[in-house]
Every structure is written in C-alpha cells, then in structure tokens.
Write a structure and sequence with these properties.
Elements lengths: L1 H16 L1 H4 L6 H34 L15 H29 L8 E8 L2 E5 L39 E4 L4 E7 L4 E5 L4 E5 L5 E5 L5 H8 L6 E5 L11 E7 L1 H10 L3 H4 L2 H5 L14 H7 L1
Parallel strand pairs: 1-4, 3-9
Antiparallel strand pairs: 1-2, 4-7, 5-6, 5-8, 8-9
Bound molecules: copper (II) ion.
C-alpha cells in the first residue's frame, strides 16, 4: 500500500513539475488537432492507468497469504473474457482510427502556394536554403558538397542562382510553409515543439512536413511575457557528440515583414562567386570539379 501511495504521489508530482516544459504554447493550425488527439488519448489511458494501478496494489494487499485462508477456485468465465477483450479492442481501434485520420490530414499534399524551405541536417548543425524569387530550389547532390557548398547545390542549374541560405528561418504567419528535409550523414530529426512538428531527416531519403504558423514571434513574446522568446528548431534524434548543439532559430513574421526580410536576402552564389568557376559544365552537363578561375575564363 505504501508503494501505491508513494508511487501515486511521485506520478502526480512528475506531471505537475514538468507541465510547462511538456506543454509548450501552441503556434500552428494542425497543432490544435495533434493536441486534441493527444489529450483524448492521455485522458483515456490515464483513467485506465490510475484504476488498474490502484486495483493491482490494493488486491495484492487485500489477498495476501494468510494461513487460515484458501484461494477461491475460479478457472474460467467466458462472459468476462469477452468483456475485457472487447472493450479495450474497441477503444484502441477508435484511438488508432482517430490518429490515422489526423495524421493523414497533417501529411496531406502541401498547398501549391506554400513557402518552400529546404532543411538539411548534418553533424552538427542545420543547413537551410530558400528557393529565392523564382520559387524553385536548384538541384542538389551530395557529390557537389565541399567546405563552402555545404548543401551540395548544383550551381550550374539556373534555379540555384537566386537560392539563399539564411542564418535564421523566417516564415510568414497564416501562410502554408513546406519543409523539404534531407540529411547529409546520419539520421537527424526536425523538431519544432511549438508547431507540434517532428520529422526525421534521413540520409538518402528526403522527407517533408508542411504547416501553417498561427502566431508571430512578437505575439508569442507578449503571450509568454518573455521578451527573449524565440521559436527553436532542435534535433530530436541522438545523432552524435554534438547533438545538443543542433539549434536553429525560427522567426514567424507578419506577411509584410516576411516580404521585407525576403527582399533583404542576397543569393548564396553572390556571396560565394568562386563556386561558379567550379561549376563550369561540359556539353553533357557534367560538373568538372576543381577548375581554376583562369581555365574557366579561357574556355568562355
Ligand atoms: Cu542531429
């Protein structure tokens, strides 16, 4: 009985103590569906958990061995078997069905007018790329990766010319945002807790996730009363020694502010023009690596 009481108190304490960390304020449209499902599931299994734990400890106390007491022989009851099989089966099926419905809504195709952002995990940081004014990400391939071109963008692809790699992610409030997720080395995982967004970054297997942010960073700062508040992208897959350092700031702007920010960004290739010389291509459009600037100039 002591176990039941102490265990119950610790259980309740762990809930209340970590409440704020576990329940970050919500800032996305689909997050409301996730939260609803989470809380329905939590309440259902919470009630069952509490009842079964109380019975488990209480019965083992009540029916403990006594010399003058014999156990009642009660081998089988079909009705009871059916009841305790059917009820959990139906409840589980309903929860699974609701989860599947919600998940297929969340992972439906992103709207055409989504803001597209590429996020690439590497040991140990995030690399982020925007498609620029043309709205098209240039082609990328691991074979193009070098110390400067960390995302392996093909700079002979015209679509790459206006791609930019900012130090912070900016997204507009109320507009759909599509994250195209890749990894360069091991499995990482994109986690944006305020948006209820989590998706693995898997080498060789691009993944994606789209969402609609519903609160700007400024709104969240006044809601939380914390003027320093920032949305954070964290890696949520233990990926090596520097895993803890994989932190990236995400800013939700009003749409006008977002447009201003976009206009102020300059293409990656403008900041690193030396990459162009590496990407002088032959007729088959194959990259000739490590060409000097002089060689390229003479060829041109
Ligand atoms: Cu990681």
């Amino acid at each position: 009985m002591l176990f039941l009481i102490v265990g119950g108190v610790v259980f309740a304490w762990s809930f209340s103590d970590s409440w704020d960390q576990m329940n970050q304020p919500l800032a996305s449209v689909h997050g409301a569906w996730t939260d609803e499902l989470f809380w329905i599931t939590m309440v259902v299994i919470g009630i069952v958990f509490v009842i079964t734990q109380i019975l488990l400890f209480f019965y083992s106390y009540k029916y403990q061995h006594k010399d003058d007491k014999r156990a009642y022989y009660y081998p089988h009851n079909n009705k009871l078997e059916i009841v305790w099989t059917m009820i959990p089966a139906v409840v589980m099926a309903l929860l699974v069905f609701a989860g599947w419905k919600t998940w297929s809504n969340i992972t439906s195709a992103a709207p055409e007018d989504s803001v597209v952002i590429e996020v690439m995990g590497k040991q140990f940081s995030w690399l982020v790329r925007y498609p620029g004014a043309d709205g098209k990400l240039g082609e990328a391939n691991v074979q193009y990766i070098d110390a400067t071109n960390e995302m392996g963008v093909n700079f002979s692809d015209p679509n790459s010319m206006d791609d930019f790699m900012p130090r912070e992610i900016h997204v507009p409030k109320g507009k759909p945002v599509l994250l195209k997720i890749r990894s360069r080395d091991v499995i990482h995982s994109v986690f944006l807790p305020h948006f209820r967004l989590k998706m693995d970054a898997v080498p060789g297997m691009p993944t994606k996730f789209w969402f609609v942010p519903s609160k700007t960073t400024a709104e969240m700062r006044s809601e939380t009363g914390n003027p320093e508040f920032n949305y954070e992208l964290a890696c949520t897959e233990i990926c090596g020694r520097g895993h803890f350092a994989m932190r990236y700031i995400l800013v939700v702007d009003e749409p006008e502010e977002y447009e201003e920010w976009m206009a102020a960004q300059s293409p990656f290739i403008e900041q690193n023009p030396q990459l162009l010389t590496k990407f002088a291509t032959d007729s088959k459009n194959q990259v000739v690596l490590e060409k000097s600037a002089e060689e390229v100039k003479t060829e041109l």
